Amino acid sequence: MKVEANTEASRALPHDGMAEAHFSHYAAPLIDRALACAAALRANPDAEVLHDLRASLRRLRTLLWAYRPLLDDTFDAQQSALFKFFANAAGKTRDWDILIGLLEETSDAQGQPREALEAARAKSLDASRETLARANVKSALRDALKEANRKLNTSHDRTPLSKFAQQRLASAQKSMKKRMKRASHAKRSDYASYHEVRKAGKKLRYLIEFFEPVLKKKQVKSVTSLKKLQKRFGELNDVVASEQLLRDNQSVFSDEALSARALDSLAKERKRRMRAAARLL
Fold first, then answer.
1. Of 159, 190, 207, which one is at a domain's C-terminal end?
2. CA-to-CA distance for 72 and 93, rounded, in angstroms?
3. In what residue span(s) does the CHAD domain sit (predicted)?
4. Do 252 and 121 form a contact (C-beta atoms < 8 A)?
């Protein structure tokens, strides 16, 4: 159940209209996908379902950012915070999946407390399910779409979609260049600057995928390099997040020496991935 870019729905649109009228065409499929993932999660704890849910919510946050000039800042901030809360709830279990995989890949798998790690993962999944159920994801997402459409459709202003797309893409590109420059001059241990590049690159890629039919071919082709950047910086983020998760849960190791070796192996992998990410700056 892998979430792909929303390009098919985008290509089907008559891109000769106004940005305000097209919002729901972009948002509705993402909301449907997120709700399908949330429903599947109740019966299927598969890692890909969790990943797809988080990816759909991230795309929704990017779409809200794109439409921020046409919506009020307060609405964007509130909804983005809500979507981030949902994504984090799903992401906690996904983080355990990544940690387990990295430990098997980078250290002595024979020494890892697999049962304890899986138990921690199961506990996290239960918490994710409970959080999402209590939050009433379906109602929250539907209400957000309804309110955004109301604000856009009752606005007196109308913005040509092609002009709007170019303006928002230019803003995202400017932010991306600024963050890449900052990261290129940062110390190798400064992961925060790399994380900002990753987020900016992801936002830029999602925008291109949303607005692909009204963009220039050169702009669309840049998705290839953005995917490469996102993959490499995402791999770095995986190991950094796994290190922190393990530090916060060292009790899963009954042997302190095993815990120390696991953290050491992750630290070495982080440095390797840091060097790989730096080559793209």
1. 159
2. 33
3. 16-281
4. no
Amino acid at 86: F
| Structural domain that includes position 255 | 160-281
- SS3 of 158, please? coil
pLDDT in tens, the chain (281 residues): 444 444 444 445 544 588 998 999 999 999 999 999 888 877 776 767 878 888 999 999 999 999 999 998 888 888 889 888 988 888 888 899 999 999 988 876 556 788 889 999 989 888 888 888 888 888 889 999 999 999 998 888 889 999 999 999 999 999 999 999 999 998 877 899 999 999 999 999 999 999 998 998 999 999 999 999 999 999 999 999 999 999 999 888 888 888 888 899 999 999 999 999 999 99
Q: Does residue 279 sit within a domain?
A: yes
In a domain, 47, yes or no: yes
CA distance 199 to 191: 13
**7 falls within a domain:** no
195 domain-assigned: yes
Does one domain contain both 141 and 170?
Answer: no
Q: Is the domain of 145 the same as that of 42?
A: yes
